[in-house]
Amino acid sequence: MTSCSKCGMIPSLEETGTFLFTAAEAGGRDLIIKHLKDRGAEPEQEGRTIHVPFYSLEEAVRMVDGLEADLKESGVSVKGTWKNSASVFGHMLDLAVLKVRISKPSYLKIINEGLFTHHMQPIINLHSSEVMGQEFLMRPDSSTYSFYPGELFDYAQKADLQSVLDSQARMSSIEHSARHLDQGTKRFINFLPSSIYDPNHCLKSTFKVVKEHGVDPSDLVFEVVETEKIHNVAHLQNIFKTYQQYGVNVALDDLGSGFATVEMLEQLKPDYGKVDRSLISYCDQDEEKQEKLKQMLKRAEIHNIKMLAEGIERKEELEVVKQLGFDLAQGYYIGRPSDYPMGKSFTTAGK
C-alpha cells in the first residue's frame, strides 16, 4: 500500500476503522444513534459528529447502507465518511465512494495487489523500418482476476483510486520494460494528468523505480491519456516540464480526436504527437483526411515534434502516412500487442 493519502492509502475490505456520521438536526443525530445501537453498534457522540468503530470496512459500509435506507423514511439525511485506523495520515472517504469500492471486490483486490501485467505493441521508424519502441498496455495477469482495462480505470475513477492505479501501472510498465527491452528502445507509457496533483511529489516514486531498474530516462516516453477536457493547461505543462527535467520524453495521444487538438499540441510542445486512428483509417481513400494530416505535420514540424500515426491496419494506410512524412507508425498491421517484443525490424513480406 502506498503512503500518500492523495494517491491512496487503499483500505482493504478487512481493514478496521471508524465511521463518522453527521446530521444537520439534533433529532436526526439522536435517531442515528438509536438505529446504530439497534443494529448492535457502539456509537459515541462528539459535538455534531457520531463516531462508530467497526471491525472492517465492508461491515461498516453494509451497515451504513442499511441505516441510510432506514432513516430516509424518517426524513433524516445522513452523511458519512470512513477513517481507516491503519493509515499514517488518516484517510477520509465518503459513503458513495465506499459503496463503489465494495461493489467489485475483485477490482479492489486487483488494484490493491497489482494483479496485472503489460503487453507491448511495436512502434516503427518509417524511414528505416526498424522497431524503435514499444507501447505498454495493461492486461490481466491471470484468468482468476480478469478485467477490461477501460472498465478497471472507470471503476478506479469512481472509487477514488485512479491515482493509485495510474501510478502502479506506470511503475509496473517501467519494471516490465527493464526485463524485456534493450537500452535505446523507447518505452511509451500512458499516464493520466488528473491523477498527478503535484508533479514534484507524485512522480518521486516513478523516478525512483527508473533509477532502481537502471532504465535510461531518455528511453521513456510518457504519453497523456485523458478522456475529459484538459481544464488546466498550465498544470499539464508543469507535469511535462517535470518529466523533461529528468530527461524523460513526453507525448500527446489521440491527436485529432476529442480535446487533443493541434492547438493543444502547439501549447504543450511535446516530444511526440500521436495521431488518432479516426484520421488514419482509410486515409488512402480520403483526400480531406490527407489534407488535415498534411496541415498537422506542418505545424508539428515548426516545433520539432515527431509525429506518429496510430491504428495502422492496412498496407495502403502505412504507405500514405509514410509518403506524407510521418516519422513513426503503430497498429495491428505492423504488430499486435504481445507478451514479448517483436523483432528489431518490420517487413511487409507475407502481409
Automatic annotation (TrEMBL):
Name recorded for this polypeptide: EAL domain-containing protein (Putative c-di-GMP-specific phosphodiesterase class I)
CDD domains: EAL
Source organism of the structure: Sinobaca qinghaiensis
PROSITE patterns: EAL (PS50883)
GO molecular function annotations of the record: cyclic-guanylate-specific phosphodiesterase activity
Domain of life: Bacteria
Span of domain EAL: 99-351
